[in-house]
Amino acid sequence: MPSTRPVPWVSPLLCLAVLAGGAYYALVDAGPSFRLAGFSALLLLLIGLDVLDRHIPAAVLLVTRTALYIAVNALDDSGISRVLFVLIPFGAYFTFGRRPAIILGASCVAALPAVLTLRVPGWQTRAEYVSDLVMFTLGVVLAITMAAVAVRERQARVRLEQIMHEVEALSAAQERNRLAREIHDSLGHHLTAIAVQLEKATAFADLDPSGAREAVANARWSADRALTEVRHSVRTLGRRPFHLTDALTELIDHLNDARLTITLDVTGTEEGPLTSQMALYRAAQEALTNACRHSGAANVRLSLAYEDAGANLTVADDGHGFDLREGFGLRGMRERIEQLDGRLDLASTPAGTTISARVPW
Predict the structure, then answer these.
(1) 3-state DSSP assignment of residue 276
(2) pLDDT band at 188, cuts 50/70/90?
(3) What residues contact residue 132 under an 8 Å CB cut-off, 6+ apart?
(4) Of 138, 165, 192, which residue is a domain's last?
(5) Nearest-10 crossing angle of helices 87-96, 10-29
(6) Hey, which bits of the chain come out as E strands?
(7) What DSSP string runs through 38-82?
(8) 349 in helix, strand or coil?
(9) What are the C-alpha distances in Å from 31 to residues 22, 25, 27, 279?
(10) 125 and 269: one domain?
(11) Does 181 have pLDDT greater than 80?
């Protein structure tokens, strides 16, 4: 269990300073004595309490220290040990809070004139004692202020650690979501394409052997493409430059068959950052996967328009439509586009489905 005080060195350091100053005064004034021995022993005991404070109840520790401060002052002829009383509100601030610390500090300040009145008649007219009272009051104020700063610093550090943990947890969650989207958008699409091609190969194995072989070849291409994209993801898309138009053209060439016709229209000059191009590519993959899996479309048209401020992708099919309640694929597509400050629009009717994505750059 850590110490309740963010600055645990203050008390033992002050005790050592009082021990050095009080012992020097006693030795110069009267030489070694039993009072000096008791004075020194009590200060060493106070230092020991600072080492053991984590094992002692706070209230008991406060009372014990106060009693020891009184005893040390009774044995001190120099008056220097009065400074120890500033440790009462200082320590109380960490344990009991601001208000109890202020009350204890005010009590210590009020007690000093009473003690001086009992021990030093006429002290009010002596500059040194008035100065001692002012300096003691200032010491109490500074001790409480120092404790307040230390407590706030500790609270700020704890809050910062909490924020860092929250940020790390959020970053980990975002990374998991990103990887999940990558797996769904890339592998999910290719696995769907493989399944479609293998179904075609099975259906036409006897009637059209060449068509069946072509379907198997397309399935093999989809499998190779999936492995390539996994490697690219691991290597941050590898070293080969990514070109959106070429990637879409290659994708469409291997999905076109007798049952599904896909066309691509491109306008403008290809440009823009890799992240934006990849977002549009993943959107096209998801749209084509939905067209193959859900819509029953015979024709799909992709329109890609490059502009100075961004790019627009539209994927329209003539299928019977599907439920637009966003599953993981559509939700991942929307999140990917919106992270780039883009926009995604979905529309599905019994006459077909249209997905439009725009990303700026």
Answers:
(1) helix
(2) low
(3) 79, 82, 112
(4) 165
(5) 160
(6) 261-267, 299-306, 310-317, 343-349, 352-360
(7) HHHHHHHHHHHHHHHGGGS-HHHHHHHHHHHHHHHHHH-SSSGGG
(8) strand
(9) 12, 9, 4, 87
(10) no
(11) no
Name which of 299, 290, 358, 360 is nearest 327 in CA terms.
Answer: 290
Q: Please, what is the Cα angle at 16 between 75 and 95, to 5 degrees?
A: 95
Nearest Cα to 330, choosing from 353, 307, 300, 352? Answer: 353
Answer whether residue 210 is part of any domain: no
Considering the domain architecture, whether residues 25 and 136 belong to the same structural domain is answered as: yes
The answer to whether the pTM exceeds 0.90 is no
What 3-state class would DSSP assign to 312?
A: strand
- Output the CA–CA distances (angstroms, integers) from residue 73 to 22, 78, 79, 85, 118, in the order listed: 10, 9, 7, 10, 14
Q: Are residues 151 and 265 in the same domain?
A: no
Domain that holds residue 71: 10-165
Residues 6+ apart with CB under 8 A from 345: 354, 355, 356, 357
From the DSSP assignment, how many helices (H) and strands (E) are in the chain? Answer: 11, 5
User: 267: phi > 0 → left, psi -120 to 50 → alpha, else beta; which?
Assistant: beta
- pLDDT tens sequence across 217-246: 777 777 776 776 666 555 544 445 678 898
* Three-class SS state of 160: helix
Specify the DSSP element, H or E, that contains 339: none
How far is Cα of residue 153 from the mean position of the Cα atoms in its chain? Answer: 19
User: Beta strand 310-317 with 261-267: parallel, antiparallel or unpaired?
Assistant: unpaired
State the Cα–Cα distance between residues 297 and 313, nearest whole angstrom: 19
pLDDT value, residue 236 = 46
- Kindly state whether residue 175 falls inside one of the protein's structural domains: no
Is 32 in the same domain as 152?
Answer: yes
Q: Residues, the chain, total?
A: 361
Tokens standing for 42? 């009590």
- Tokens 């100065």 locate to 131
Alpha carbons 90 and 93: distance in angstroms, whole number:
6
